Task: inverse folding
């Protein structure tokens, strides 16, 4: 056990040397080995590790699975406990680490530029813009998609949800980022595929 703990500490130190951590503010959920789930907030992250504010820290060495806005599913082991949270490794292939590094770069640049969404994705107007929004309490409401991109959408609905509310547009999860003239804008938690985007957001 002592050898295993030492190996984990060495791995964590190696990750800190290899990867630069980025300050983030990402909401999500995590699951401990006993299958209990809790909400969390990632406060800094690199392709090799992440630190969470969390109500239930678990134990050093515990395996954790987490789902984070903009990042998706990550898993690893707890390496450090601190007040109100814990740090964990991110177990991933080299390809996934590269993808995560790109996502973190985008998140850092978005914060610096104060961009509410990914401006790289062209917005389109759907021929059939009618859809259904599922709110945080499970209420389903009809809405109209003003415009749409791979990373977000502008939605007309009265009354609009609050800013930072997590919603489902069809089958796509997102978060309300701001109000617009006709309604509100949501940012998808993960960039969508162009092939099935329209089908996913208009799914009922």
Result:
């Amino acid at each position: 056990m002592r050898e295993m703990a030492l190996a984990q500490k060495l791995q964590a130190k190696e990750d800190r040397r290899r990867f630069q951590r980025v300050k983030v503010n990402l909401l999500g959920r995590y699951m401990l080995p006993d299958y209990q789930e809790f909400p969390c907030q990632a406060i800094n992250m690199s392709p090799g590790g992440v630190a969470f504010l969390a109500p239930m820290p678990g134990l050093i060495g515990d395996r954790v699975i987490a789902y984070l806005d903009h990042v998706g599913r990550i898993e690893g082991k707890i390496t450090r406990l601190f007040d109100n949270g814990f740090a964990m490794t991110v177990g991933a292939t080299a390809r996934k680490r590269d993808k995560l590094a790109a996502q973190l770069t985008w998140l850092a640049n978005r914060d610096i530029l104060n961009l509410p969404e990914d401006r790289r994705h062209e917005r389109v107007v759907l021929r059939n813009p009618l859809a259904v929004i599922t709110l945080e309490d499970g209420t389903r409401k009809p809405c109209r998609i003003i415009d749409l991109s791979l990373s977000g959408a502008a939605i007309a609905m009265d009354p609009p949800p609050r800013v930072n509310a997590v919603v489902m547009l069809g089958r796509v999860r997102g978060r309300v980022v701001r109000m617009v003239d006709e309604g509100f804008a949501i940012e998808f938690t993960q960039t969508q595929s162009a092939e099935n985007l329209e089908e996913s957001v208009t799914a009922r």
User: Anything to note?
Assistant: The CA atoms of residues 160 and 183 lie 6 Å apart. The longest helix spans residues 94-113.
